[in-house]
Amino acid sequence: MTSKELELQKRKTYLQISGTACSNCRKTSRDVGVESLFRCSRCRMSAYCSKSCQKEDFSNHKHFCAAVEELHNFEEAWYSCNEESEWNKRQIYHMQLLSAPLDRELSSYERNAWLYQPKCHVCFRTSKDLQNYQPLIPCSQCLIIFCCSQEHWTQHREKHQTLCKTYQLMINCERIRYQDTSETLWAPEEWDESAIYPPLPKDWNGYFKWRKNSQFIQLDTLCRVITNSLSLPLTILSALERFYTRHNLRSLEEMVIHIIGASQYEILALMTFEEIMHVLPNIKILRIILIGLEMPQQNSGIPLSCCSRCTEANRKRICAFYPMSYHEYGHSSNYTTPHITVGFNIELEENTELWEPTIEFLLEKEVPCILTSYSKEEAIQDVKILKSWGTKILVGAKENKWGSTMPLLEPQKVDKFYHNNFFKTLFQGRS
């Protein structure tokens, strides 16, 4: 497997986390023609369609499995909780306990596995909370929402029916994303010969029509998956419209973009950044520099492959990784002045003290910046924090029409969904 395929293999889908799909091959019992999947006897979380799949997944599963088994044996940690706030507190407490035998913080995959684990949507009990690990009863349609009894399903069914289609849409998006262990990405191998940009079209349907792909004229499930990755370059292009004139943008031969607080989300979407070159055909070199504590080993520039047409025209994409905070990178000899700095879903309000020196550096340099948020509430908080630091806000907490249209499930809220890059804030320099 390639490093990208290995990374995707570690990630578990909602169905895998719920135990209704094989933790290794992602197939349901119906897919493989068996009556039911069997669960790991130690942790009782991961489910498998066969012994061979269990064996193949063991290297990814074994350490977390042992930690979960140890937690299961710590009975004092399994106090009852019958409402959402108590459930969330217990989940956080459990994740702290799980990190001890691992001797490290939980990975994002392990956190998701614990936060999204099956629970009764009425009484918030897991299978572990029930006598003899009694299995929960899944919704027969979406397969990821559970109740502990038919009585509780009677209470919850009406509420769930209003959301079940959204859950099913979310699952169908995941099926497309993880087909053949690769995410579905799209960047048309053509240039914007009409020189329409800027501005961009008014919405996603207009964009797909402009980029001349007839199968994407109407927003369907496949399109929603594509927007989750394509949201990154389109959000950047929309911000560039605000900071630069049409003449300046279309005359650039090299563009440098800094992505702060970068994570696996940006790494897995790197291919779609070529769309910036397709929309701005005069660019010969596009440099994408990802800076964040989750980045892999530092490198100052890796050439990325381009589409056949860009390759023939000798156009280049170069990506660099810096596993550090942005202000540390900014004070290093590797720093290069960007045309724009972007922070995708960085949740400024969650780590205000850590972000303050980075924002201070950006304000000092007067770099054009855009931050995105999952929700309007988060975006409003971002603007308040930025203003308290003396930031000159150009666009504050505005809905981003290039946000992802693929629904994702809130990890610590019941029946709540979010979208990547749904709101945006633009700023530059001090007020």
Automatic annotation (TrEMBL):
A GO MF term: zinc ion binding
SUPFAM superfamilies assigned to the protein according to its UniProt record, in alphabetical order: HIT/MYND zinc finger-like
Classification via InterPro entries: Mss51-like_C, Znf_MYND
Keywords (A to Z) from UniProt: Metal-binding, Zinc, Zinc-finger
Domain MYND-type: 22-65
Presence of the UniProt keyword Zinc-finger in the record: yes
One Pfam family in the UniProt entry: zf-MYND
Protein name (database record): MYND-type domain-containing protein
